[in-house]
Specification:
Helix content is 56%, strand content 6%. It has 161 residues and is mainly alpha-helical. 18% of the residues are buried.
Length: 161
């Protein structure tokens, strides 16, 4: 006799609730970025490149994909689109002619910083009703980065990025 697993319904399924919350958040971000002419993945890549830029680094497309958590082939296509929009430059690496390095253009830096403000406001609207924001970040960090179990002052929770 096989036993049917007990399922209390979608409102008690963490995976289902996370999926629904993610869909709502993605729609909010897409709506917020649309007036800027950016998709969510374009924003993620620009924001990741902005962080490299702030460190004085010019990453390869692979390094950008690794930091952003995106597929390398998709990253290549989106980078090409962003270059066509004049938001970033792709240049040959002086040390390795097979490699392209990336840098924001002044227009790209301005667009990224404007988008970062827009996304921060959308995040605040979406997550503003959460009572303990730090606890939410810790829990989401555990799910997003299970390999990072660095010790922190509060007992070993991953540090929010």
């Amino acid at each position: 006799m096989t036993r049917t697993p007990t399922f209390g319904g979608p409102r008690v399924s963490p995976g289902y609730l996370l999926w629904r919350a993610t869909l709502r958040w993605q729609r909010r971000i897409a709506t917020a970025l649309k007036p800027l002419g950016l998709t969510h993945v374009q924003y993620v890549l620009l924001e990741s490149l902005w962080r490299f830029d702030a460190q004085g680094r010019r990453p390869s497309q692979r390094e950008l994909a690794d930091r952003a958590g995106t597929d390398v082939m998709m990253t290549s296509q989106v980078v090409r689109t962003l270059a066509d929009k004049g938001l970033l430059r792709r240049t040959v690496d002086r040390r390795d002619a097979r490699k392209r390095v990336l840098a924001l253009t002044p227009r790209g830096r301005e667009a990224t910083e404007r988008a970062m403000e827009v996304v921060a406001r959308a995040d605040e609207e979406h997550f503003g009703g959460v009572g303990d924001r730090r606890a939410l970040l810790v829990l989401l960090g555990r799910l997003a980065y299970p390999e990072e179990r660095r010790r922190t002052r509060d007992g070993g929770d991953p540090v929010a990025r």
